[in-house]
Design a protein that fits this description.
Blueprint: E1 3-10, E2 13-18, E3 21-26, H1 30-41, E4 43-49, H2 59-71, E5 74-76, H3 81-100, H4 111-130, E6 137-141, H5 148-155, E7 160-164, H6 172-175, H7 181-188, E8 193-196, H8 199-213, E9 216-218, E10 221-223, E11 228-233, H9 240-251, H10 260-270, E12 276-283, H11 290-303, E13 311-318, H12 325-345, E14 353-357, H13 362-371, E15 374-377, H14 386-394, E16 401-405, E17 418-420, H15 425-437, H16 440-456, H17 459-481, H18 487-499, E18 503-507, H19 527-538, E19 542-547, H20 552-559, E20 565-568, E21 573-575, E22 581-583, H21 592-605, E23 610-614, E24 617-621, H22 627-644, E25 650-655, E26 658-663, H23 668-676, E27 683-688, H24 693-699, E28 705-709, E29 718-720, H25 723-736
Parallel strand pairs: 1-4, 1-6, 4-5, 6-7, 7-8, 8-11, 12-13, 12-15, 13-14, 15-16, 16-17, 18-19, 18-27, 19-20, 27-28, 28-29
Antiparallel strand pairs: 2-3, 9-10, 10-11, 20-21, 21-22, 23-24, 24-26, 25-26
Bound molecules: GDP-alpha-D-glucose.
């Protein structure tokens, strides 16, 4: 059986020290439930903070805690009071939480918080290292542990790491404000699979990866130098059957077994059939839009006076992070608003808002869900919002109306709810009216669709899907790694090289022999490169061919005096050592005047881009442009060009951040073939990094050693990670003589 580790800020159980005994109570949160199925399937352990400060625990109790937790397959991460101050209340909840929920005005950038965050992520890593033996997969949860994936990956690259973010991932414009944005991105990219609740969060993340780190992405895959990372949306579900069945069971209880809350609701509300109950449940958090909701409810009472005394809002606000100032402020605001509305509208036999500031037992929650006619859920931002789903699941008679903010991740699946903009009190007030007046048939119709969907994609399915995807990434990675040059492959290449008497080495330049520079004119050859190439070309058994898309003037200035063969413009021109440039093929050039104005239009609209004119091609460069915009414009441009060039014998090449239009039939592969046809070579090497080099890999004889730089799919036989690996390989060949 596979062994896995689950890691989250908190363990899925609550600990209480009662004199000498330690009491544990499982927590009822969604993540804990979802993980139950994973628990059954794998031999797993859960690592997290048990909720007690280290100072509260003496060595004797520590041993007891460990024993109790061990029985539950849990491992504690012990944090000091200072740790929780800086890491939990500090960076997690005063920096990441507000920023990721678009509350930039509440976001605090404090260096000590950041240091505390790094330190605690390291503490988690240390505990992981103590339990990693035999572990094949790790699933890390949420925004408290954004650095942990990379900390683990560095030490244990072979362990598959999944990371799931339970809160929104903000757009680039918000995320870029974080002083430690690079560290956070790199930390997350330590994972092999990164999951979000919705596609929107996923695309924001990918956009940040492209803009901040410059990695190439293909749909939902990120190609790091040495690894492929997959990003995907997994909308978290709930334990539907549990909520639904428990609601049925509680309803069927005999009068004497009924919960007090049920009896109270029956006594005060359910006797009056015209009285509508509206429910609101959240942690008391500024992201949940509680003041907006109250103002909209107040406005509803003002706008639709006919419903006064006929509607009651039951509002449960669960205390949360109350040491953080913003949470204290929101509490005062809510208290004040409730007081104001009740003061304004109450009568002797009616209180508009029943307000509870505490948490209730799970059974009471079910009673509230089941008895209320309307759920009013209006977050300003919410990663998912499970309360909305739980409400629908608990409506056993199929009646009930959900009013849901379009800013909650859950709207993507709950489109049959009445969706509102949480900042629009007019719309919310009207939605309440619509909900009150909605015919029962319509309520049932909408809910039936919602219930079916929630039952199918439940939390168990969510967890299983995530794990399946993680396995899948492993297969994708293995495919790209299968061809990576390792010791035995290298030994074989060396053997072939040693045996050969007539060798030819086709080497692409940019991205293969040198790293990419934002400005291509800065990618000049360095001394070490000249030395390697000179040594190779001085060997009489070798012919060195630099084969590139560069223009012949640049190549002349860099390598004109060298003993290498140069092929420029993807195979238009050839220059043998000591000779002049010659055209490999005769071509026409008159098409340029037709294409150029179109390209200029793209330069005008895309800052940072420019046109390079080569003898037989035009190139639009977008390396210096905003990566997102450049990428979109390149797609547009290719699309436009495709119809424009149909009357000419031209083709469009897409290279690394370039779109090149050139005469068709000219490519590196054709040029190379012409060269090797002239002589018998018993060792042929071809190395390149981009799309244009694929022609070379395809055309060279099957026995050739073809190498792609970058761990991506290719026609080449082998891969290496970066241009430095190419240099190492060439230096190894130099030593062989
Ligand atoms: C984060 C994201 C995302 C609430 N009051 C009581 C109680 N609850 C339970 C509910 C529900 C859970 O707490 C709240 O979950 P939410 O999803 O609504 O919100 P967050 O706590 O902010 O959770 C959120 C979630 O992670 C999962 O990924 O959906 O967007 O912010 O399950 O039932 N449970 C009990 N008593 C209460 O008084 N027993």
């Amino acid at each position: 059986m596979d062994k896995i580790l689950i890691i989250s800020n908190r363990l899925p159980l609550q600990l209480k020290i009662d004199k000498d005994t330690i009491n544990v109570k499982p927590s009822v949160g969604g993540v804990a439930t979802g993980m139950k199925s994973i628990y059954k399937q794998y031999e797993s352990k859960w690592i997290g903070w048990p909720g007690l400060d280290k100072e509260q625990i003496n060595p004797d109790t520590e041993k007891k805690i460990n024993d109790v937790l061990e029985k539950e397959n849990c491992v504690p991460v012990l944090l000091t009071h200072k740790d929780t101050e800086l890491f939990y209340y500090g960076f997690s909840n005063r920096t990441i939480w507000p920023l990721f929920h678009y509350f930039t005005q509440f976001t605090e950038y404090v260096n000590d918080f950041w240091k505390g965050y790094i330190e605690v992520n390291r503490k988690y890593a240390e505990v992981v290292f103590q339990h990693i033996e035999g572990i094949s997969k790790i699933w890390i949860h949420d925004y408290h542990l954004l650095l942990l994936p990379a900390l683990i990956k560095e030490r244990y690259p072979e362990v598959m790491i999944g990371f799931f973010l339970h809160i929104p991932f903000p757009s680039y414009e918000i995320f870029r404000g974080l002083p430690w944005r690079m560290e956070i991105m790199k930390g997350m990219l330590g994972a092999d699979l990164i999951g979000f609740h919705t596609y929107d969060y996923e695309r924001h993340f990918i956009s940040c990866v492209r803009r901040l780190l410059g990695y190439e992405t293909t749909i939902n895959q990120i190609n790091l130098e040495n690894r492929i990372v997959k990003v995907d949306a997994f909308p978290m579900g709930i334990d539907y059957d549990k909520f639904h069945n428990d609601a049925i069971q509680q309803q069927q209880r005999s009068v004497k077994d009924k919960l007090k809350i049920r009896k109270d609701i029956e006594q005060y509300f359910l006797t009056d059939h015209e009285r509508k109950l509206v429910l609101s449940i959240d942690r008391l958090d500024y992201s949940k839009g509680i003041p907006n909701r109250l103002r909209a409810f107040e406005y509803f009472l003002y706008k639709y006076p006919q419903y006064r005394e006929k509607i009651t809002l039951i509002m449960l606000a669960v205390p949360s992070r109350d040491v953080v100032e913003q949470y204290q402020l929101i509490k005062s605001e809510v208290d004040e608003l409730v007081g104001r509305i009740n003061g304004q509208y109450s009568s002797i036999n009616w209180t508009p808002i029943w307000y509870f500031y505490r948490s209730l037992p799970y059974e009471s929650l079910i009673e509230l869900y089941n008895s209320c006619d309307i759920a009013l859920i209006t977050p300003i931002r919410d990663g998912m919002n499970l309360v909305a789903k739980e409400y629908i699941a608990s409506k056993t008679d199929g009646k009930g109306v959900l009013i849901l903010s379009e800013m909650a991740g859950a709207t993507k699946e709950l489109s049959e709810a009445i969706l509102i903009n949480p900042n629009n009190k007019e719309e919310i007030a009207d939605a309440i009216k619509q909900a009150i007046e909605m015919p029962v048939e319509e309520q049932k119709e909408r809910n039936a669709i919602l219930q079916k969907r929630l039952q199918r994609y439940n939390v168990e399915k969510w967890a299983q899907d995530f794990m399946k995807s993680l396995d899948n990434v492993k297969v994708i990675q293995a495919r790209s790694l299968a061809k990576k040059i390792n010791e035995p492959i290298l030994a074989d290449i060396k053997k072939q090289y040693n045996k050969a008497t007539n060798r030819i080495l086709f080497l692409d330049y940019d991205g293969t022999l040198v790293g990419f520079k934002k400005d291509p004119s800065h990618a000049v050859p360095d001394e070490a490169l000249y030395k390697t190439l000179d040594q190779l070309s001085e060997n009489s058994r070798n012919e060195i061919v630099l084969i590139s898309g560069r223009d012949k003037e640049t190549f002349t200035s860099w390598f004109g005096e060298k003993k290498y063969t140069l092929i420029a413009e993807h195979g238009v021109w050839i220059k043998r050592a000591g000779e002049e440039w010659q055209l490999i093929e005769q071509m026409q050039n008159d098409w340029k005047e037709l294409i150029r104005p179109g390209l200029e239009f793209y330069v005008d609209r895309t800052p940072g881009t420019f046109i390079e004119e080569k003898n037989y091609s035009l190139v639009w460069h977008y390396r210096k442009a905003d990566p997102e915009l450049g990428w979109h414009r390149a797609i547009e441009l290719k699309d436009e060009l495709t119809s424009l060039i149909s009357n000419y014998s031209l083709e469009i090449l897409e290279g690394n951040k370039v779109v090149e239009i050139k005469n068709s039939g000219i490519n590196k592969g054709r040029a190379a073939i012409k060269l090797i046809a002239k002589k018998h070579y018993d060792f042929i090497l071809g190395i390149g990094d981009d799309w244009t080099d694929e022609y070379l890999f395809e055309e060279l004889p099957k026995s050739s050693v073809t190498i792609k730089v970058g761990l991506v799919n290719t026609h080449a036989r082998f891969n290496v990670e970066t241009f430095s690996d190419v240099r190492d390989l060439l230096n190894t060949l130099v030593k062989l003589g």
